Amino acid sequence: MDTQHLSARSRATAGDRRPAIPSGVIHVNTLHTNRYTVIGNHLAQHREMSLVAIGLAVHIQSLPAGAKIGIKFLAGRFPESETRIAAALRELESHGYLARTRERTPGGRVVTRTVSYNQPDAGAAARTGLAHSAPKPEPRAERQQQKREPVTPVAPTAPPAQAPAPTALPAQRAASPEATPPLPEPQTHDLARHRTAVDLLADLRAHDPRLLLCEQDIRLLAPAVACWLERGIDPEAVRRTLTADLPEPVRHPAPLLGHRLTHYLPPPLPTAPAREAVPRPHPFQDCDGCQRVFRAPGPGSCRDCRETDTSCTTDHLECTA
After folding, report:
1. Tens digits of per-residue pLDDT, 232-264?
2. Which of 128, 155, 170 finishes a domain?
3. Is pTM beyond 0.70 here?
4. Does residue 259 sit in the same domain as residue 292?
5. How far apart are CA 85 and CA 79, in angstroms?
6. CB of 220 within 8 A of CB of 183?
7. Which one, of 266, 244, 267, 268, lies nearest residue 256 by Cα?
8. Which of 78, 133, 166, 179 has the highest local Cβ count within 10 Å?
9. pLDDT at residue 320 above 60?
Protein backbone atom coordinates (compact mmCIF):
# COMPACT_ATOMS: atom_id res chain seq x y z
CA MET A 1 0.00 0.00 0.00
CA ASP A 2 1.26 3.48 -0.91
CA THR A 3 2.11 5.99 1.80
CA GLN A 4 -0.63 8.63 2.30
CA HIS A 5 0.56 12.26 2.26
CA LEU A 6 -1.79 14.22 4.49
CA SER A 7 -0.31 17.62 3.61
CA ALA A 8 -0.94 17.23 -0.12
CA ARG A 9 -3.87 19.21 -1.68
CA SER A 10 -6.72 17.09 -3.01
CA ARG A 11 -7.56 17.14 -6.72
CA ALA A 12 -11.04 18.58 -6.10
CA THR A 13 -9.70 21.68 -4.40
CA ALA A 14 -6.40 22.13 -6.19
CA GLY A 15 -7.92 24.14 -9.08
CA ASP A 16 -10.46 26.16 -7.01
CA ARG A 17 -8.84 29.60 -6.89
CA ARG A 18 -11.12 32.60 -6.21
CA PRO A 19 -10.15 35.97 -7.71
CA ALA A 20 -9.11 38.76 -5.42
CA ILE A 21 -11.93 41.09 -4.29
CA PRO A 22 -11.77 44.30 -6.37
CA SER A 23 -11.55 47.65 -4.57
CA GLY A 24 -14.03 49.47 -6.89
CA VAL A 25 -17.70 49.05 -7.68
CA ILE A 26 -19.12 45.66 -8.63
CA HIS A 27 -21.93 45.76 -11.22
CA VAL A 28 -24.83 43.33 -11.06
CA ASN A 29 -26.72 44.09 -14.29
CA THR A 30 -30.14 42.80 -15.27
CA LEU A 31 -31.48 43.17 -18.81
CA HIS A 32 -34.35 45.68 -19.04
CA THR A 33 -37.24 44.63 -21.24
CA ASN A 34 -39.65 47.55 -20.59
CA ARG A 35 -39.78 51.00 -18.96
CA TYR A 36 -36.15 52.00 -19.47
CA THR A 37 -34.29 55.01 -20.87
CA VAL A 38 -30.98 54.99 -22.76
CA ILE A 39 -28.57 57.56 -21.29
CA GLY A 40 -25.20 58.35 -22.83
CA ASN A 41 -22.01 58.31 -20.77
CA HIS A 42 -21.35 61.86 -21.93
CA LEU A 43 -24.22 62.84 -19.62
CA ALA A 44 -23.91 60.23 -16.85
CA GLN A 45 -20.16 60.91 -16.45
CA HIS A 46 -20.15 64.65 -17.20
CA ARG A 47 -17.26 66.32 -15.40
CA GLU A 48 -18.51 69.94 -15.47
CA MET A 49 -22.12 69.58 -14.31
CA SER A 50 -23.37 68.94 -10.79
CA LEU A 51 -25.04 65.72 -9.76
CA VAL A 52 -28.32 67.60 -9.39
CA ALA A 53 -28.14 68.71 -13.03
CA ILE A 54 -27.19 65.20 -14.25
CA GLY A 55 -30.01 63.61 -12.28
CA LEU A 56 -32.49 66.21 -13.51
CA ALA A 57 -31.42 65.60 -17.12
CA VAL A 58 -31.94 61.84 -16.67
CA HIS A 59 -35.38 62.48 -15.18
CA ILE A 60 -36.39 64.82 -18.02
CA GLN A 61 -35.22 62.38 -20.72
CA SER A 62 -37.26 59.61 -19.10
CA LEU A 63 -40.51 61.63 -19.25
CA PRO A 64 -43.02 61.36 -22.11
CA ALA A 65 -43.58 64.27 -24.48
CA GLY A 66 -45.76 67.00 -22.99
CA ALA A 67 -44.86 66.25 -19.34
CA LYS A 68 -44.58 69.19 -16.94
CA ILE A 69 -41.04 70.21 -15.97
CA GLY A 70 -41.64 73.66 -14.50
CA ILE A 71 -39.54 74.80 -11.56
CA LYS A 72 -42.44 74.83 -9.08
CA PHE A 73 -43.67 71.43 -10.32
CA LEU A 74 -40.21 69.85 -9.95
CA ALA A 75 -39.74 71.43 -6.50
CA GLY A 76 -43.00 69.80 -5.40
CA ARG A 77 -41.91 66.46 -6.88
CA PHE A 78 -38.35 66.31 -5.44
CA PRO A 79 -36.79 67.44 -2.13
CA GLU A 80 -34.53 70.02 -3.82
CA SER A 81 -35.54 73.68 -3.49
CA GLU A 82 -36.66 75.92 -6.35
CA THR A 83 -33.28 77.70 -6.27
CA ARG A 84 -31.31 74.48 -6.80
CA ILE A 85 -33.65 73.24 -9.53
CA ALA A 86 -33.45 76.58 -11.36
CA ALA A 87 -29.64 76.44 -11.16
CA ALA A 88 -29.64 72.86 -12.49
CA LEU A 89 -31.84 73.85 -15.43
CA ARG A 90 -29.44 76.67 -16.27
CA GLU A 91 -26.56 74.16 -16.21
CA LEU A 92 -28.39 71.92 -18.68
CA GLU A 93 -29.01 74.93 -20.94
CA SER A 94 -25.39 76.05 -20.83
CA HIS A 95 -24.15 72.56 -21.79
CA GLY A 96 -26.71 72.06 -24.55
CA TYR A 97 -28.97 69.45 -22.95
CA LEU A 98 -31.95 71.79 -22.68
CA ALA A 99 -33.44 74.78 -24.55
CA ARG A 100 -36.20 77.03 -23.22
CA THR A 101 -37.92 79.77 -25.23
CA ARG A 102 -40.77 82.13 -24.41
CA GLU A 103 -43.63 82.02 -26.95
CA ARG A 104 -47.03 83.69 -27.16
CA THR A 105 -50.08 81.55 -27.91
CA PRO A 106 -52.85 82.71 -30.31
CA GLY A 107 -54.91 83.56 -27.22
CA GLY A 108 -52.24 86.02 -26.03
CA ARG A 109 -50.83 83.86 -23.24
CA VAL A 110 -47.03 83.65 -22.82
CA VAL A 111 -45.76 80.09 -22.30
CA THR A 112 -42.31 78.49 -21.99
CA ARG A 113 -41.45 75.86 -24.62
CA THR A 114 -38.81 73.37 -23.41
CA VAL A 115 -36.80 71.04 -25.69
CA SER A 116 -34.61 68.25 -24.25
CA TYR A 117 -31.56 66.94 -26.15
CA ASN A 118 -29.94 63.56 -25.46
CA GLN A 119 -27.08 64.30 -27.92
CA PRO A 120 -26.15 67.98 -27.65
CA ASP A 121 -23.70 69.58 -30.04
CA ALA A 122 -20.71 70.34 -27.83
CA GLY A 123 -19.35 73.00 -30.19
CA ALA A 124 -22.63 74.89 -30.48
CA ALA A 125 -23.23 74.60 -26.73
CA ALA A 126 -19.83 76.11 -25.98
CA ARG A 127 -20.39 79.04 -28.38
CA THR A 128 -24.01 79.91 -27.76
CA GLY A 129 -24.98 78.06 -24.60
CA LEU A 130 -27.92 76.47 -26.41
CA ALA A 131 -27.93 73.29 -28.55
CA HIS A 132 -30.08 73.52 -31.64
CA SER A 133 -32.25 70.63 -32.77
CA ALA A 134 -31.41 68.84 -36.01
CA PRO A 135 -33.64 69.56 -39.07
CA LYS A 136 -36.64 67.30 -39.39
CA PRO A 137 -36.36 64.70 -42.18
CA GLU A 138 -38.69 65.18 -45.12
CA PRO A 139 -41.53 62.69 -45.58
CA ARG A 140 -40.81 59.84 -47.96
CA ALA A 141 -43.64 60.80 -50.33
CA GLU A 142 -42.29 64.35 -50.70
CA ARG A 143 -38.77 63.06 -51.42
CA GLN A 144 -40.08 60.79 -54.13
CA GLN A 145 -42.10 63.65 -55.64
CA GLN A 146 -39.03 65.87 -55.67
CA LYS A 147 -37.07 63.18 -57.52
CA ARG A 148 -39.72 62.86 -60.22
CA GLU A 149 -40.08 66.58 -60.91
CA PRO A 150 -37.56 67.96 -63.43
CA VAL A 151 -35.07 70.42 -62.06
CA THR A 152 -34.81 73.71 -63.94
CA PRO A 153 -31.26 75.10 -63.96
CA VAL A 154 -31.03 78.49 -62.28
CA ALA A 155 -28.24 80.98 -62.73
CA PRO A 156 -26.07 81.15 -59.62
CA THR A 157 -26.65 84.20 -57.52
CA ALA A 158 -24.76 85.58 -54.60
CA PRO A 159 -26.16 84.37 -51.29
CA PRO A 160 -28.02 87.06 -49.33
CA ALA A 161 -26.21 88.55 -46.41
CA GLN A 162 -27.41 87.05 -43.16
CA ALA A 163 -28.53 89.50 -40.54
CA PRO A 164 -26.86 89.09 -37.16
CA ALA A 165 -28.90 87.29 -34.57
CA PRO A 166 -30.75 89.77 -32.31
CA THR A 167 -29.40 89.96 -28.82
CA ALA A 168 -31.70 89.95 -25.85
CA LEU A 169 -32.30 93.36 -24.34
CA PRO A 170 -31.73 93.83 -20.61
CA ALA A 171 -35.48 94.25 -20.08
CA GLN A 172 -36.13 90.99 -21.90
CA ARG A 173 -33.52 89.16 -19.84
CA ALA A 174 -35.04 90.56 -16.67
CA ALA A 175 -38.48 89.34 -17.76
CA SER A 176 -37.33 85.72 -18.02
CA PRO A 177 -38.77 83.40 -15.34
CA GLU A 178 -35.28 82.50 -14.08
CA ALA A 179 -34.16 86.13 -13.58
CA THR A 180 -33.63 87.00 -9.93
CA PRO A 181 -35.59 90.13 -8.90
CA PRO A 182 -33.64 92.84 -7.09
CA LEU A 183 -33.83 93.12 -3.34
CA PRO A 184 -36.32 95.71 -2.03
CA GLU A 185 -34.97 99.01 -0.76
CA PRO A 186 -36.54 101.60 1.55
CA GLN A 187 -37.92 104.85 0.16
CA THR A 188 -36.02 106.98 2.67
CA HIS A 189 -32.74 106.30 4.44
CA ASP A 190 -33.06 106.18 8.22
CA LEU A 191 -29.94 105.42 10.25
CA ALA A 192 -31.81 104.05 13.28
CA ARG A 193 -33.93 101.78 11.08
CA HIS A 194 -30.82 100.55 9.25
CA ARG A 195 -29.10 99.69 12.54
CA THR A 196 -32.18 97.75 13.66
CA ALA A 197 -32.08 95.78 10.39
CA VAL A 198 -28.37 94.97 10.81
CA ASP A 199 -28.89 93.83 14.43
CA LEU A 200 -31.86 91.69 13.38
CA LEU A 201 -29.85 89.87 10.69
CA ALA A 202 -26.83 89.36 12.94
CA ASP A 203 -29.08 87.94 15.70
CA LEU A 204 -30.68 85.28 13.45
CA ARG A 205 -27.95 82.77 14.35
CA ALA A 206 -29.09 82.95 17.98
CA HIS A 207 -32.51 81.66 16.90
CA ASP A 208 -31.21 79.13 14.34
CA PRO A 209 -27.47 78.26 13.99
CA ARG A 210 -28.01 77.49 10.29
CA LEU A 211 -28.66 81.22 9.62
CA LEU A 212 -25.07 82.30 10.27
CA LEU A 213 -24.38 85.28 7.99
CA CYS A 214 -21.09 86.97 7.17
CA GLU A 215 -20.68 90.75 7.27
CA GLN A 216 -20.95 91.06 3.48
CA ASP A 217 -24.29 89.19 3.43
CA ILE A 218 -25.62 91.37 6.27
CA ARG A 219 -24.69 94.56 4.38
CA LEU A 220 -26.43 93.19 1.28
CA LEU A 221 -29.66 92.17 3.06
CA ALA A 222 -29.94 95.09 5.52
CA PRO A 223 -31.70 97.49 3.06
CA ALA A 224 -34.35 94.83 2.33
CA VAL A 225 -35.05 94.39 6.07
CA ALA A 226 -35.17 98.17 6.46
CA CYS A 227 -37.82 98.26 3.70
CA TRP A 228 -39.98 95.90 5.78
CA LEU A 229 -39.52 98.09 8.86
CA GLU A 230 -40.38 101.18 6.84
CA ARG A 231 -43.70 99.61 5.91
CA GLY A 232 -44.64 99.26 9.57
CA ILE A 233 -43.71 95.58 10.06
CA ASP A 234 -42.61 94.76 13.60
CA PRO A 235 -39.01 93.41 13.86
CA GLU A 236 -40.29 90.28 15.60
CA ALA A 237 -42.66 89.62 12.68
CA VAL A 238 -39.74 89.99 10.24
CA ARG A 239 -37.69 87.54 12.31
CA ARG A 240 -40.50 84.97 12.30
CA THR A 241 -40.83 85.25 8.52
CA LEU A 242 -37.11 84.61 8.03
CA THR A 243 -36.79 81.69 10.47
CA ALA A 244 -40.06 79.79 10.03
CA ASP A 245 -40.29 76.49 8.07
CA LEU A 246 -36.68 76.40 6.86
CA PRO A 247 -35.83 73.65 4.32
CA GLU A 248 -33.39 70.85 5.01
CA PRO A 249 -30.51 71.30 4.63
CA VAL A 250 -29.73 75.04 4.63
CA ARG A 251 -26.45 75.32 2.72
CA HIS A 252 -26.70 78.95 1.56
CA PRO A 253 -28.71 81.05 4.03
CA ALA A 254 -28.16 84.44 2.34
CA PRO A 255 -29.96 83.59 -0.97
CA LEU A 256 -32.75 81.93 1.01
CA LEU A 257 -33.30 85.02 3.18
CA GLY A 258 -33.09 87.30 0.13
CA HIS A 259 -35.79 85.23 -1.58
CA ARG A 260 -38.11 85.53 1.41
CA LEU A 261 -37.48 89.25 1.86
CA THR A 262 -38.32 89.84 -1.83
CA HIS A 263 -41.28 87.51 -2.44
CA TYR A 264 -42.98 87.87 0.96
CA LEU A 265 -42.72 91.69 1.12
CA PRO A 266 -46.10 93.08 2.28
CA PRO A 267 -47.57 96.13 0.51
CA PRO A 268 -47.31 99.54 2.14
CA LEU A 269 -50.20 100.73 4.27
CA PRO A 270 -52.80 102.79 2.37
CA THR A 271 -52.66 106.51 2.99
CA ALA A 272 -55.54 107.64 5.22
CA PRO A 273 -57.71 110.32 3.58
CA ALA A 274 -57.44 113.79 5.09
CA ARG A 275 -60.31 114.63 7.40
CA GLU A 276 -62.45 117.59 6.46
CA ALA A 277 -62.52 120.43 8.96
CA VAL A 278 -65.82 120.48 10.88
CA PRO A 279 -67.06 124.02 11.55
CA ARG A 280 -67.29 124.72 15.27
CA PRO A 281 -70.49 126.29 16.60
CA HIS A 282 -70.57 129.81 18.01
CA PRO A 283 -69.91 130.13 21.76
CA PHE A 284 -72.69 130.63 24.27
CA GLN A 285 -73.60 134.24 25.17
CA ASP A 286 -75.85 135.73 27.89
CA CYS A 287 -78.66 137.91 26.56
CA ASP A 288 -78.29 141.50 27.71
CA GLY A 289 -82.07 141.86 28.01
CA CYS A 290 -83.50 138.58 29.40
CA GLN A 291 -80.30 136.91 30.57
CA ARG A 292 -81.10 133.81 28.55
CA VAL A 293 -78.29 131.78 26.97
CA PHE A 294 -77.94 131.75 23.19
CA ARG A 295 -75.18 131.13 20.62
CA ALA A 296 -73.65 134.10 18.87
CA PRO A 297 -70.21 135.26 17.66
CA GLY A 298 -70.19 137.98 20.37
CA PRO A 299 -72.21 139.46 23.29
CA GLY A 300 -75.66 140.97 22.58
CA SER A 301 -79.39 140.22 22.73
CA CYS A 302 -81.27 137.04 21.85
CA ARG A 303 -83.73 136.84 18.95
CA ASP A 304 -86.83 137.53 21.07
CA CYS A 305 -85.28 140.62 22.58
CA ARG A 306 -84.19 141.84 19.17
CA GLU A 307 -87.75 141.48 17.82
CA THR A 308 -89.15 143.61 20.63
CA ASP A 309 -86.28 146.07 20.45
CA THR A 310 -86.19 147.26 16.86
CA SER A 311 -83.13 149.35 17.59
CA CYS A 312 -80.97 146.14 18.00
CA THR A 313 -79.06 145.48 14.82
CA THR A 314 -76.67 142.81 16.08
CA ASP A 315 -76.76 139.56 14.00
CA HIS A 316 -77.27 136.72 16.51
CA LEU A 317 -78.56 133.18 16.22
CA GLU A 318 -81.63 131.64 17.87
CA CYS A 319 -81.51 131.63 21.65
CA THR A 320 -81.65 128.48 23.69
CA ALA A 321 -83.24 127.88 27.07
Report:
1. 999 999 999 999 988 888 889 999 999 999 999
2. 128
3. no
4. no
5. 10
6. yes
7. 244
8. 78
9. no
Give helix then strand counts, H and E, for the chain: 14, 4
50 and 122 co-located in one domain? yes
- Report whether 253 contacts 211 (CB < 8 A): yes
User: Does one domain contain both 241 and 286?
Assistant: no
State residue 157's pLDDT score.
55
Q: Residue 249, preceding bond cis, omega within 30 degrees? A: yes
129: left (phi over 0), alpha (psi -120 to 50) or beta: left
Q: Which of 119, 118, 20, 101 lies closest to 60 in space, CA to CA?
A: 118
| Domain match, 259 and 291 both | no
Domain count, the chain: 3
**Residue 122 domain-assigned?**
yes
Q: In which domain, by residue range, is 227 found? A: 191-263
With H, G, I as helix, E, B as strand and everything else as coil, classify residue 252: coil
Residue 267, judged by CB atoms within 10 A of its CB (0-12, 13-18, 19+), counts as exposed
Q: What average pLDDT does this structure show over 268-282?
A: 76
* 300 and 255 assigned to the same domain: no
Q: How far apart are CA 202 and CA 198, in angstroms?
A: 6
Of 224, 218, 216, 189, which is closest to residue 203 (Cα–Cα)?
218
Residue 243 counted as domain residue: yes
- CATH of residue 97: 1.10.10
